[in-house]
Amino acid sequence: MGRPRKALLDRARIGATALQLIDEKGDFTVPEVARRLGVQTASVYHHVDGRAGVVELVRERVVDKLDPATLDLRPWDTALEAWARAYRAAFAAHPRAISILMTSPVRAPRVIGQYEQVAGLLVDAGFAEDDVMPIITGLDNLVLGSALDMSAPEVMWVVEDESAAPRLASAQKATGPARADRAFDLTLAGFLAHCRGLAP
């Protein structure tokens, strides 16, 4: 029998399939990925180091939508804001992946590379080294929380009896359909203002 013209399996297909399962069901198993690809589970393990390896392929697939060129902008706060907005958009496209990715250590080299750029951006701007990881972690929390919020119902506070919560009901009506975007703009602006206060 001749060899197939195209390999049945590669890391890109494994990551894409796992992400598709997460988007559909909220999680994946390696046997499910194998079934979807029409191969044996052992074949998947030839390409990845267990479930953790598949998670990193998913992470790379999501982060590949981020344009690292945003981190070449200057000054540092312009770069950080542009990266945060691109980061939010990439993860908002796959909200069910957020909890899986946020609870697994980051190992994917391409993703580590982007965080290295962020760390370098902050260090080069003169931030104290012990402020760098709190800033990166804080930005992660802000961006990923907002990306989850983008998949939430537009009306999150269901006020059935407006007389019981008239100010909340009125504020919710006044905000309109851009609640998640306006909240992100507000919190990102506050975060960056605080970071500017830490800058030398």
Overview of this protein structure:
With 200 residues, the protein is mainly α. It has helices spanning 11-25, 30-37, 41-45, 50-63, 76-92, 98-102, 109-124, 129-149, 166-175, 179-198. α1 crosses α2 (30-37) and α7 crosses α8 (129-149). The mean pLDDT is 94. InterPro entries: Homeodomain-like_sf (IPR009057), HTH-type_TetR-like_transc_reg (IPR050109), HTH_TetR (IPR001647), Repressor_TetR_C (IPR004111), Tet_transcr_reg_TetR-rel_C_sf (IPR036271). Keywords: DNA-binding, Transcription, Transcription regulation. This is TetR/AcrR family transcriptional regulator C-terminal domain-containing protein. Residues 29-48 bind DNA. Residues 8-66 form the HTH tetR-type domain.
Features:
200 residues; mainly alpha; 10 helices; single chain
Largest beta-sheet characterization: none
Number of DSSP helical runs: 10
Tertiary shape: flat
DSSP strand tally: 0
Approximately how much helix is present in the residues? 55-70%
Beta-strand percent range? under 5%
Q: Could you tell me the mean pLDDT?
A: 94
**Backbone structural class:** mainly alpha
Poorly predicted regions: none
Question: Secondary-structure element order, as H and E?
Answer: HHHHHHHHHH
Termini Cα gap: 68 Å
Radius of gyration: 21 Å
Brief characterization of the structure:
This protein is mostly helical.
Question: What is this structure's SSE topology?
Answer:
Blueprint: H1 11-25, H2 30-37, H3 41-45, H4 50-63, H5 76-92, H6 98-102, H7 109-124, H8 129-149, H9 166-175, H10 179-198
Helix pairs in contact: 1-2, 1-4, 5-8, 7-8, 8-10
